Amino acid sequence: MAETKAQHPPLFEGLVSDTTRITMNNLGLNLVRYTYRAPKVRFLVIHDDEDTGVKAALEYIRFSGGTLIDCQYGGIRNFKINNQGESFQTDPNSIYTKAGIPIGIQKYGPVDDDVVKQLERTAKTILKLYNPEQLGYIFTLHNNTDGDFGISSYLKGYELEAAADSVHINFSMDPDDLIFVTDAKLFSGFKKENVNVVLQSAKAPDDGSLSIYAMYNKIPYINVEVQHGHFDENLRLIEIAIKVLFQAYPLLKQKAAE
Length: 258
Hints:
The chain is built from 8 helices and 11 strands. It is α/β, with parallel strands linked by helices. Helix 1 (51-64) packs across helix 7, helix 5 (184-192) packs across helix 7 and helix 7 (231-248) packs across helix 8. The N and C termini lie far apart (42 Å).
């Protein structure tokens, strides 16, 4: 079995961590939870090759307190699972709905029922650890590659048009740096802050992503998405996102302070 090791060890004194281990045949997945002081906010990083978000979240936590749950499985993007002599893979952000899991696997090859079941169990474990129902929101961090994906991807005529209800663009920002939400109040708040922001469409295709899960379950969802290496912008957008979240839902701020 391929053994995974923590890719992002604690970076400052007082930061504590614990690990929940998931095994999917040959693939070992560590859900590493970092916590410092009062858990003011809880972040989730799904892809193990997106370290700028991890570093920015830890920097925020160092000054303000909070929790980060980081999925660690070898520093790559996709889950790669062997089953009965065959190899399967999928994007870890396509495992959160029953309809989406086989679609995600099918992008890379044939679908295997046992792999589907393992991915369903993995998604349930991640969600149980993050506990969005109790928390009241989902706050994820993603990174992208320069020019490969950005705010323009959601405009009419582009590949993700069907996923977007509304788009607001600040043309002074790098188009690869944006925030994606499922909630109209959050979209309005980010628009007022004049940052690149996309509101997911209620008719967005079910691709198994966490944002679709959040929409189906009526949980406010925020994804801060920036280009790899844009650390300062990642941290800036995290700070804005927390401000907008607590302004839109003041009871969440009260709960976080308790």
